[in-house]
Amino acid sequence: MASAQLYDTIGATYTATRRTEPRIAAQVWAALGDAQTVLNVGAGTGSYEPPGRDVTAVEPSAVMRAQRPAGAAPCVDAVAESLPFEDQSFDAAMAFATIEHWRDPIAGLREMRRVARHVVVFTYDASDPDLFWLNRDHLPEFARLWTGRPSLTELAGAIGARTEPVLVPWDCADGFYHAYWRRPEAYLDEHVRRGMSIWARVGPDAEQRAVHSLRDDLASGRWTERNRDLVDLDAADLGLRLLIA
Questions:
Q1: In sequence order, what DSSP letters do the residues of 131-161 get, joined into one string?
Q2: Strand ordering across the sheet containing 37-41
Q3: Contacts of 82 (CB under 8 A, 6+ apart)
Q4: For residues 68 and 40, what is the distance between their CA atoms, to the nearest angstrom?
Q5: What are residue 121's DSSP bridge partners?
Q6: Per-residue pLDDT reduced to its tens digit, 15-45
Q7: Torsion, Cα of 126, 128, 134, 135 (10° steps)
Q8: CB-based contact 155:106 (threshold 8 Å)
Q9: Cα–Cα distance, 175 to 41 (Å, whole number)
Q10: With 0-12 CB in 10 A as exposed, 13-18 as middle and 19+ as buried, what is 104?
Protein backbone atom coordinates (compact mmCIF):
# COMPACT_ATOMS: atom_id res chain seq x y z
CA MET A 1 0.00 0.00 0.00
CA ALA A 2 1.41 3.40 -0.96
CA SER A 3 2.02 5.97 1.75
CA ALA A 4 -0.92 8.21 0.87
CA GLN A 5 -3.32 5.25 0.70
CA LEU A 6 -2.00 3.85 3.98
CA TYR A 7 -2.52 7.09 5.85
CA ASP A 8 -5.87 7.77 4.20
CA THR A 9 -6.87 4.44 5.73
CA ILE A 10 -5.29 4.57 9.18
CA GLY A 11 -4.47 8.23 9.78
CA ALA A 12 -7.85 9.58 10.91
CA THR A 13 -6.98 9.37 14.61
CA TYR A 14 -3.30 10.27 14.47
CA THR A 15 -3.69 13.58 16.30
CA ALA A 16 -4.98 11.67 19.36
CA THR A 17 -1.68 9.91 20.10
CA ARG A 18 0.91 11.50 17.82
CA ARG A 19 2.36 14.77 18.98
CA THR A 20 5.73 16.48 19.18
CA GLU A 21 8.12 15.03 21.76
CA PRO A 22 10.07 18.13 22.89
CA ARG A 23 13.38 16.38 23.60
CA ILE A 24 13.47 14.73 20.16
CA ALA A 25 12.23 17.94 18.54
CA ALA A 26 15.11 19.87 20.12
CA GLN A 27 17.58 17.44 18.51
CA VAL A 28 15.90 17.70 15.11
CA TRP A 29 15.70 21.49 15.25
CA ALA A 30 19.32 21.77 16.35
CA ALA A 31 20.30 19.67 13.33
CA LEU A 32 18.50 22.18 11.09
CA GLY A 33 21.03 24.78 12.20
CA ASP A 34 20.22 28.36 11.23
CA ALA A 35 17.96 27.41 8.31
CA GLN A 36 15.11 29.89 7.97
CA THR A 37 13.19 28.32 5.07
CA VAL A 38 12.35 24.68 5.78
CA LEU A 39 10.53 22.08 3.67
CA ASN A 40 8.86 19.35 5.71
CA VAL A 41 8.42 16.27 3.52
CA GLY A 42 5.81 13.68 4.52
CA ALA A 43 4.64 16.23 7.04
CA GLY A 44 1.53 14.47 8.30
CA THR A 45 -0.42 16.55 10.81
CA GLY A 46 2.49 18.91 11.44
CA SER A 47 4.38 17.44 14.38
CA TYR A 48 8.02 18.54 14.65
CA GLU A 49 7.64 21.52 12.33
CA PRO A 50 10.02 24.09 13.80
CA PRO A 51 8.47 27.29 15.20
CA GLY A 52 9.84 30.65 14.19
CA ARG A 53 10.88 29.50 10.72
CA ASP A 54 9.27 29.73 7.30
CA VAL A 55 7.96 26.18 6.83
CA THR A 56 6.37 24.64 3.75
CA ALA A 57 4.87 21.17 4.14
CA VAL A 58 4.45 18.31 1.68
CA GLU A 59 1.90 15.55 2.45
CA PRO A 60 0.21 13.20 -0.07
CA SER A 61 -2.56 11.96 2.25
CA ALA A 62 -5.74 14.06 2.23
CA VAL A 63 -6.78 12.57 5.58
CA MET A 64 -3.54 13.73 7.19
CA ARG A 65 -3.66 17.15 5.54
CA ALA A 66 -7.19 17.67 6.89
CA GLN A 67 -5.95 17.18 10.45
CA ARG A 68 -3.32 19.91 10.29
CA PRO A 69 -4.21 22.53 12.89
CA ALA A 70 -5.27 26.07 12.11
CA GLY A 71 -2.22 28.20 11.60
CA ALA A 72 -0.04 25.28 10.50
CA ALA A 73 2.40 25.74 7.63
CA PRO A 74 0.92 25.71 4.11
CA CYS A 75 0.79 22.14 2.81
CA VAL A 76 1.29 20.88 -0.74
CA ASP A 77 -0.14 17.62 -2.09
CA ALA A 78 2.96 15.89 -3.45
CA VAL A 79 5.28 12.93 -2.91
CA ALA A 80 8.92 12.95 -1.87
CA GLU A 81 10.14 11.40 -5.10
CA SER A 82 8.78 14.31 -7.18
CA LEU A 83 8.93 17.55 -5.22
CA PRO A 84 7.36 20.48 -7.12
CA PHE A 85 10.07 23.01 -6.28
CA GLU A 86 13.06 24.53 -8.03
CA ASP A 87 16.61 23.52 -7.18
CA GLN A 88 17.88 24.94 -3.88
CA SER A 89 14.53 26.52 -3.04
CA PHE A 90 14.96 26.00 0.71
CA ASP A 91 17.65 26.39 3.32
CA ALA A 92 16.78 22.94 4.66
CA ALA A 93 14.49 19.98 4.03
CA MET A 94 13.37 17.67 6.83
CA ALA A 95 11.45 14.41 7.04
CA PHE A 96 10.25 12.75 10.24
CA ALA A 97 9.35 9.05 10.47
CA THR A 98 8.18 8.91 6.87
CA ILE A 99 10.82 7.53 4.51
CA GLU A 100 10.01 3.93 5.42
CA HIS A 101 6.73 4.47 3.54
CA TRP A 102 8.19 6.00 0.39
CA ARG A 103 8.15 3.89 -2.77
CA ASP A 104 11.76 4.87 -3.52
CA PRO A 105 13.57 6.27 -0.45
CA ILE A 106 16.80 6.94 -2.34
CA ALA A 107 14.97 8.99 -4.97
CA GLY A 108 13.10 10.89 -2.27
CA LEU A 109 16.28 11.74 -0.38
CA ARG A 110 17.95 12.91 -3.58
CA GLU A 111 14.95 15.13 -4.30
CA MET A 112 15.26 16.65 -0.83
CA ARG A 113 18.95 17.27 -1.52
CA ARG A 114 18.05 18.87 -4.84
CA VAL A 115 15.58 21.37 -3.42
CA ALA A 116 17.47 22.23 -0.22
CA ARG A 117 21.00 23.05 0.85
CA HIS A 118 20.68 21.02 4.06
CA VAL A 119 18.79 17.78 4.83
CA VAL A 120 17.68 16.31 8.18
CA VAL A 121 15.82 12.99 8.26
CA PHE A 122 14.52 11.04 11.26
CA THR A 123 14.57 7.35 10.36
CA TYR A 124 15.42 3.87 11.61
CA ASP A 125 18.42 1.56 11.43
CA ALA A 126 16.88 -1.85 10.71
CA SER A 127 20.16 -3.76 11.00
CA ASP A 128 19.30 -5.01 14.51
CA PRO A 129 15.51 -5.01 15.05
CA ASP A 130 15.95 -7.10 18.20
CA LEU A 131 17.19 -4.01 20.04
CA PHE A 132 13.50 -3.57 20.83
CA TRP A 133 11.91 -6.30 22.96
CA LEU A 134 8.55 -6.02 21.13
CA ASN A 135 10.19 -7.12 17.88
CA ARG A 136 12.40 -9.70 19.53
CA ASP A 137 9.76 -11.45 21.61
CA HIS A 138 6.41 -10.74 19.97
CA LEU A 139 6.57 -9.34 16.43
CA PRO A 140 9.13 -11.05 14.19
CA GLU A 141 7.18 -9.68 11.21
CA PHE A 142 8.69 -6.27 11.93
CA ALA A 143 12.08 -7.31 10.56
CA ARG A 144 10.51 -8.65 7.36
CA LEU A 145 9.09 -5.23 6.53
CA TRP A 146 12.60 -4.02 5.80
CA THR A 147 13.50 -6.80 3.38
CA GLY A 148 14.62 -5.26 0.09
CA ARG A 149 14.61 -1.74 1.50
CA PRO A 150 17.81 0.37 1.48
CA SER A 151 19.97 0.07 4.59
CA LEU A 152 20.80 3.07 6.75
CA THR A 153 24.28 3.06 5.23
CA GLU A 154 22.82 3.17 1.71
CA LEU A 155 20.43 5.97 2.65
CA ALA A 156 23.22 8.01 4.17
CA GLY A 157 25.50 7.36 1.20
CA ALA A 158 22.88 8.57 -1.27
CA ILE A 159 23.07 12.12 0.09
CA GLY A 160 26.45 12.12 1.81
CA ALA A 161 24.87 12.20 5.27
CA ARG A 162 26.26 11.49 8.70
CA THR A 163 24.15 9.63 11.26
CA GLU A 164 23.26 10.64 14.80
CA PRO A 165 21.53 8.41 17.39
CA VAL A 166 18.14 9.54 18.71
CA LEU A 167 17.41 8.22 22.19
CA VAL A 168 13.78 7.61 23.10
CA PRO A 169 12.87 8.98 26.56
CA TRP A 170 10.96 6.59 28.80
CA ASP A 171 8.03 9.02 29.00
CA CYS A 172 8.04 9.94 25.32
CA ALA A 173 5.07 12.19 24.49
CA ASP A 174 4.85 11.07 20.87
CA GLY A 175 3.12 7.73 20.52
CA PHE A 176 5.23 6.25 17.72
CA TYR A 177 6.02 2.53 17.64
CA HIS A 178 9.10 2.59 19.89
CA ALA A 179 7.73 5.18 22.33
CA TYR A 180 6.43 2.85 25.02
CA TRP A 181 9.52 0.69 25.51
CA ARG A 182 9.33 1.11 29.31
CA ARG A 183 5.51 1.21 29.41
CA PRO A 184 4.62 -2.14 27.81
CA GLU A 185 0.97 -2.09 28.90
CA ALA A 186 0.39 0.71 26.39
CA TYR A 187 0.73 -1.74 23.50
CA LEU A 188 -2.35 -3.57 24.76
CA ASP A 189 -4.45 -0.44 24.14
CA GLU A 190 -5.99 -0.49 20.66
CA HIS A 191 -6.37 3.31 20.77
CA VAL A 192 -2.61 3.64 21.21
CA ARG A 193 -1.84 1.07 18.52
CA ARG A 194 -4.00 2.90 15.96
CA GLY A 195 -1.48 5.73 16.03
CA MET A 196 1.26 3.37 14.78
CA SER A 197 1.42 2.49 11.11
CA ILE A 198 3.34 -0.71 11.86
CA TRP A 199 0.19 -2.64 12.78
CA ALA A 200 -1.53 -1.92 9.48
CA ARG A 201 1.63 -3.01 7.71
CA VAL A 202 2.00 -6.39 9.48
CA GLY A 203 -1.75 -7.12 9.38
CA PRO A 204 -4.41 -7.99 11.97
CA ASP A 205 -3.35 -11.60 12.55
CA ALA A 206 0.21 -10.65 13.51
CA GLU A 207 -1.08 -7.75 15.60
CA GLN A 208 -3.48 -9.87 17.62
CA ARG A 209 -0.89 -12.61 18.15
CA ALA A 210 1.63 -10.05 19.40
CA VAL A 211 -0.91 -8.43 21.72
CA HIS A 212 -1.98 -11.76 23.22
CA SER A 213 1.64 -12.86 23.65
CA LEU A 214 2.55 -9.60 25.38
CA ARG A 215 -0.50 -9.76 27.64
CA ASP A 216 0.52 -13.26 28.71
CA ASP A 217 4.11 -12.17 29.39
CA LEU A 218 2.97 -9.23 31.49
CA ALA A 219 0.56 -11.37 33.50
CA SER A 220 3.14 -14.10 34.12
CA GLY A 221 6.02 -11.78 34.97
CA ARG A 222 8.08 -12.95 31.97
CA TRP A 223 8.22 -9.43 30.54
CA THR A 224 9.73 -8.08 33.77
CA GLU A 225 12.22 -10.94 33.95
CA ARG A 226 13.37 -10.52 30.35
CA ASN A 227 13.57 -6.73 30.45
CA ARG A 228 14.68 -5.89 33.97
CA ASP A 229 17.67 -3.98 32.53
CA LEU A 230 15.27 -1.35 31.14
CA VAL A 231 13.61 -0.40 34.40
CA ASP A 232 16.22 2.13 35.49
CA LEU A 233 16.89 3.65 32.05
CA ASP A 234 15.66 7.18 31.38
CA ALA A 235 16.20 6.85 27.62
CA ALA A 236 16.99 4.00 25.23
CA ASP A 237 18.77 3.56 21.92
CA LEU A 238 16.34 1.48 19.86
CA GLY A 239 17.88 2.16 16.46
CA LEU A 240 16.31 5.52 15.70
CA ARG A 241 18.66 7.83 13.83
CA LEU A 242 19.00 11.24 12.23
CA LEU A 243 20.54 11.52 8.79
CA ILE A 244 22.17 14.93 8.53
CA ALA A 245 23.59 16.23 5.24
A1: GSHHHHHT-THHHHTTTTSPPHHHHHHHHT-
A2: 75-76, 54-58, 37-41, 92-96, 119-124, 240-244, 162-165
A3: 111
A4: 13
A5: 95, 243
A6: 567 789 999 999 999 999 999 999 999 999 8
A7: 70
A8: yes
A9: 20
A10: middle
Q: How far is CA 208 from CA 153, 213, 218, 220, 223, in A?
A: 33, 8, 15, 18, 17
CA nearest to 39, candidates 75, 90, 86: 90
* Mean pLDDT across 88-107: 96
Domain coordinates in residue numbering, the chain: 3-244
Beta carbons of 105 and 149 less than 8 angstroms apart: yes
122 has pLDDT over 80: yes
Indicate whether 132 pLDDT > 80: yes
Give the helix, strand, coil percentages of the chain, each rounded to 5. Answer: 45, 15, 40
Q: What is the pLDDT of residue 97?
A: 93
What predicted TM-score, i.e. pTM, was given to this entire model?
0.90
Mean pLDDT in the chain? 93
Q: What is the third-level CATH fold of 3-244?
A: Rossmann fold (3.40.50)
121 close to 100: Cβ distance less than 8 angstroms: no
Is residue 162 classed exposed, middle or buried when 0-12, 13-18 and 19+ CB atoms within 10 A define those classes?
exposed
Mean pLDDT of 73-99: 97
Tens-place pLDDT, residues 174-190? 999 999 999 999 999 99
Tell me the β-bridge partners of 211: none
Chain centroid to CA 235: how far? 17
